Automatic annotation (TrEMBL):
This is DUF306 domain-containing protein. PROSITE patterns: PROKAR_LIPOPROTEIN. Residues 155-250 form the DUF306 domain. It comes from Dyadobacter luteus. Transmembrane segments: none annotated. The lineage of its organism: Bacteria, Pseudomonadati, Bacteroidota, Cytophagia, Cytophagales.
Amino acid sequence: MKNLVNVVLVVFLFTACSQQQRVSNHTPPLDYGDKGPAKYTDQLMNKLENGVDFVASGNEPFWSLEINIDQNLTFKILEGDSITIATPYGVKVKDAAATSYKVETGRKTIEVIIYDKPCEDGMSGKEFPKSVEVNYGDKRFTGCGSYLSDYRLNDIWVLESINQTGLDITTFPKGLPRMELNLALNQVFAFAGCNEFSSSMEVEGKRIRFGRFTGTLMACPNMNFESEYLSKLANRTVPYIIEPGKLILQIAPDYSYSYKKVD
């Protein structure tokens, strides 16, 4: 009876699928070189290190956009206006897979809309994962963009502690929970101590947006831990801190998961 309750709990939290199933994401895969995304120049990597989460640009006229989600949004038009404002709260657009950042600045209103739709740059022919629209005053600008991501995330990580409290390995006879973050596929493959799970994901600068987890349905003694552990990640956007050999997911201001690099 206890095993049946555990199975029902897992079904309630996560949709079952075979262990080999892979969850698709709405953004196309990125090409990776030895030092991370091949299309990332040193300039873009410097922007990421300086806190920039999203970059975009367009042509005719040439314009550029940088968004630090926690601080500022900067919009520049070649030989025209340049504006830097505090980044407004992102709002999901109704009836569209998009996020809007809108604010009034003096006599003009600026709205940046990031669409979850691939975009091809008309001049270079390069493809980017996001289509971008900027409405500034009475003018409309369109172009392409992408979130920046730290290539060091692309690895296998084993959970070491929760909220700075180390895990008792004896309570995980099958091994400690671990996850593989695959930036090329925009997917995460996780072992939660008993079952294998997978989910879509997207790195948004210094945040990871996880999708719904699906996985196997084996019953184990530590099912309560497994359900609680994954529920704090599923369908959430989680800030992260990455250091040499270490990854911290900041679930809440006073709650975190700490991982060790093993691959």
